[in-house]
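hiii so um. not sure if this is the right channel but i have a protein structure encoded as tokens and i wanna go backwards to a sequence. like what aa goes where. can anyone help
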């Protein structure tokens, strides 16, 4: 099947994120995000433990100072501590040996705080004499030589506040970094995809056989331009090599036509001079037929070469399909009658015109009909019909011949490939020159049409469909 060469990738709006540039940016963004989270977690942990240690040192220094004072001076010292604690982060209490409250803003000993002189965390905090709940704190309880107990606590809300500040700062910094980064990545990916689409547009005619087209190269001279330059140099070399091979092939085909034409003329002259009952008459007739076959092959080869070289569309215009199909039917009806083949033409009402080269389109349809009649056995049927579809008319040539195996439907479009026609299960021989469908293939590619080979609607047989397009 031959399909028109169209851009291979129709990108959806989300296609920008499937580009290599976008993926690299997203990968870097994910790495940056993970690394930043780990860094902030480390900073928060270090800061928390540092501030916690500062609180512990304050408590240790204060409890050490109070433990050196005489019992009668402790209430005054506690009052002084309260006076200098302007932020109210300290809580303290003095209790006698029996645990009764003596002084300070704590009248109860926290039950979860052991009296061992060590610093401990108080998850639930303490309640002061004025009823205020301090929240999470750290505290120390120490028993003096006379049995008295001193309890000191300090809230850790400053540590929590610092943690909130670090977390909020991280969120703001991440937002101000990632959002512009994502937008920048989108723009970079969009720019890269636009360059890829320009290259894709340039490649389309190359895929149709226009080896003279080259990929665009920008002034950036980046890796994409380096790749485009390499491809252009490859196309230069490929064009040169194909041109040399094609030139040799065309020269051979062209140069051999002249001696073959002279040979044919001499054979005709010899045939006229030879009596019909001569023993050599049949041999001369076979030689003339073989010479005609060779000339037809060379003529077809040169025609394919001419079509492949035809890059311009100066002969294109609106073509009336009704008229073209009617002419093909009229041209091949006598050939079909000779083989007792029912050759019918089916046309819909008001068949739309197509944008094409009328002569080339006529040649393609003629080749398809000729091929169908050639492979259809005597007494068979061939149908030439047109069907109007949304994208344009579809031209079908349907025969009741042996059909083309699915495995060979691509190969028959290549030069010199011939399927085998079988008179029965023991006698199969290749038919034709293997060039008719190659000509059709070249014409289809020139028009950006689509060509399909399938089984006939009512097997056995083959349906060859030419999908045309409405004028743009």
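sure thing!! here u go:
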């Amino acid at each position: 099947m031959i399909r028109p060469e169209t851009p291979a990738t129709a990108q959806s709006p989300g296609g920008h994120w499937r580009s290599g540039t976008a993926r690299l940016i997203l990968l870097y963004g994910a790495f940056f995000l993970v690394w930043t989270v780990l860094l902030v977690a480390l900073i928060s942990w270090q800061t928390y433990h540092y501030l916690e240690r500062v609180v512990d040192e304050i408590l240790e220094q204060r409890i050490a100072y109070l433990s050196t004072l005489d019992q009668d001076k402790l209430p005054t010292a506690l009052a002084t501590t309260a006076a200098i604690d302007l932020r109210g982060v300290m809580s303290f209490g003095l209790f006698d040996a029996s645990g009764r409250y003596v002084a300070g803003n704590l009248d109860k000993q926290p039950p979860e705080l052991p009296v061992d002189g060590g610093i401990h965390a108080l998850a639930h905090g303490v309640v002061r004499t004025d009823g205020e709940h301090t929240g999470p704190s750290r505290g120390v309880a120490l028993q003096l030589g006379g049995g008295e107990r001193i309890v000191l606590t300090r809230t850790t809300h400053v540590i929590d506040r610092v943690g909130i500040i670090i977390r909020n700062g991280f969120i703001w910094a991440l937002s101000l970094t990632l959002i512009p980064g994502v937008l920048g990545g989108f723009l970079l990916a969009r720019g890269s995809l636009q360059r890829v689409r320009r290259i894709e547009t340039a490649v389309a005619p190359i895929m149709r056989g226009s080896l003279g087209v080259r990929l665009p190269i920008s002034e950036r001279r980046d890796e994409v331009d380096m790749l485009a330059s390499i491809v252009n140099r490859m196309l230069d070399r490929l064009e040169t090599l194909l041109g040399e091979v094609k030139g040799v092939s065309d020269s051979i085909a062209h140069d051999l036509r002249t001696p073959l034409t002279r040979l044919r003329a001499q054979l005709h002259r010899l045939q006229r001079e030879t009596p019909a009952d001569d023993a050599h008459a049949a041999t001369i007739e076979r030689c003339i037929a073989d010479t005609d076959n060779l000339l037809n092959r060379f003529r077809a080869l040169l025609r394919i070469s001419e079509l492949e070289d035809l890059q311009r569309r100066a002969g294109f215009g609106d073509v009336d399909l009704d008229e073209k199909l009617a002419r093909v039917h009229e041209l091949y009806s006598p050939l079909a009658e000779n083989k007792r083949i029912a050759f019918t033409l089916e046309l819909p009402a008001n068949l739309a015109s197509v944008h094409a080269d009328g002569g080339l389109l006529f040649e393609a349809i003629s080749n398809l009909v000729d091929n169908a009649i050639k492979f259809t056995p005597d007494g068979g049927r061939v149908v030439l019909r047109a069907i109007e579809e949304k994208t344009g008319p579809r031209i079908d040539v349907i025969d009741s011949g042996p059909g083309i195996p699915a495995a060979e439907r691509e190969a028959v479009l290549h030069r010199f490939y011939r399927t085998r026609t079988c008179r029965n299960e023991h006698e199969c021989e290749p038919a034709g020159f293997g060039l008719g469908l190659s000509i059709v293939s070249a014409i289809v590619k020139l028009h950006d049409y689509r060509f399909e080979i399938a089984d006939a609607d009512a097997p056995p047989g083959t349906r060859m469909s030419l999908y045309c397009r409405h004028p743009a």
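oh and Residues 157-207 form the longest helix (51 residues).
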